[in-house]
Amino acid sequence: MPRQPVARLYRRLLALALLAACVGAPAAPKFEDSMAQRTLACTACHGEQGRAGPDGYYPRLAGKPAGYLYHQLLNFRDGRRHYGLMTRLVDPLSDAYLQEIAQHFAGLDLPYPPPARPPSPTAPELLRRGQALALQGDPQRRLPACAQCHGAALTGVLPAVPGLLGLPQDYLNAQLGAWRTQQRRAQAPDCMAQIAQRLQPEDLVAVTRWLAAQPLPVNTHPAATAPSWPAGSEPLACGATTISPGARR
Amino acid sequence: MRRAGHALLALAGLLVAVSVWVWLRNTDDVDLNATAPLASTPALVARGAYLARAGNCLPCHTPRGAAPYTGGRAIETPFGTVFSSNLTPDAETGLGRWTPAHFWRALHHGRSRDGRLLYPTFPYPNTTRITRADADALFAYLQSLPPVRQAPPANTLRWPYSSQAALAVWRALYFRPGEHRDDPRQSAAWNRGAYLIAGLGHCAACHSPRNALGANGGPLDLSGGLMTPQNWYAPSLRDPAESSVADWPLAEIVRLLQTGTSTRATVSGPMAEVVRHGTQYLSETDLTAMATYLQALPSTGRRTERGAPPPSRPSGAERGARLYDRHCAQCHGDQGKGVPGAYPALAGNRAVTLAQPANLVQMVLYGGFAPATTGNPRPYGMPPYVLMLDDRDIAAVLTHLRTSWGHQAAEVSELDVHRVRAATAP
User: Fold this and answer.
1) A124 CB neighbour count, 10 Å cutoff
2) CATH code given to domain B188-296
């Protein structure tokens, strides 16, 4: 009988050794019951930071306001934005689950890479024009500053306005262009569509060039509130700034 | 000269006879003057709403992002595009001026309010089996919707399919108004299942093969069909090698229809839409009835060619195995066992070894989520590979799946992949 504990210890050591051998083998897929696991279909293209794909740029999702992300998922599903792969992916999902997916990505806090160097030197006056449009707007053309809605630091405003920094110029150009041609739409009233219509092509390029060249501030998070509108100006009505349920389903 | 005259006369006689036959085949006895208004009650409307779920009417009758049942969604067919009707009670563009008799005639005889013959894209070879009582409930529900003025675009069917005469001939050949009759030798559940599957459920609209003129094997032929031009294959529900559920426990069949997933299969593609908007809302009793019918379907062998058995070492085997390790094994496992409740097993999965590989190609090209349902609200997703893998890669990895773990299905060729990719490019 006194030998029994030794035998038990021996058996346990053997079991541990076997377990270690199993862990070392790459047999079982690493699986966890998490939103990150559920949304591998998203990150396969978007990556952690956003990434360029063969047919365009897949923007970063991490840290964007949940309301904004949720609206984009609805926009793809309900035909206000057009990208077949996105539409097919979100089609079978419920409003509640799309909301949860949006919240998952909004809650990710990942550092931003430094802005990409522009492909060619930029004329200083173009950058000055871009900066003025982004921070002051152009009252003559009835263009509010980007910062008016997207936050003083341009990192977005909760709950539903996205930040404008950390995105490549090509992507920003493509989005504004799509808004001008109504290929991209938001919930009515679609304030971005009005702004995109008012932007002259050279102003569009100026503002995207400037935005794409800006490093992120220390605090990259969306602001709680947007700056108040200057006295005498009329705030734009934006359907996309409130979180609404989907059109159907 | 006289002989030619006789021949001409005979031809004319034949034409008249055929015309009379076609005409007779397109008559109906619905009394449109019976305009007694429907006594609509909340209970009747609720019953109609439930039946509309059973018929999964919403997805086809609602374009993306539009108000429910406003119609105008494009339904692609091999003969051109048909746009669905506005079913809201708008007087100009919807069912506002329809009576219950008009609606019954549409479901039962496939005719519109003005007598026009309807295209069988609207599955009236199935809806003809719906009872008058259920038709009235559906009508009461549709009439309770807010009216929306929205005329659907005109159909863009090619000639001769666009003509009413061609449609009359098609109907004479392939359509008979019918009604559901209970089989006294079968249980009440089986009969209820047959009624739902043949009529409202219109399962055969996809799960039955269609001939060159678009006619299928009838409302209870469930022997599998390729949906063109969507390029999804609705598998046979009678073939043990496809999607027969003869050896499933009843509860698993119910679970698949209710949640979109079960221990034995997960729905995808058009069937995900059916579960998401339709069957997940059905009562346990009705789902059990459908499951009872499906489980009792007599098994038949495969109607289609099995294709050549794979050679002992398929071309591109190494490439396929390498691609599998790199792109698939992380979720589906080295041995293709998947993760229960999240990722389907590929080993032993009939969807992997179907003779018709279209669904497999679709899954790899476009990925996707199982439908989010009350019973499976947070499904896991598969990424699309359409931009990552070319036709040769996809053919190799699918051939790998179809010849691993004891599978002996035919190779998938680059052409198989190309065909689906070309027809479905988003």
Assistant:
1) 8
2) 1.10.760
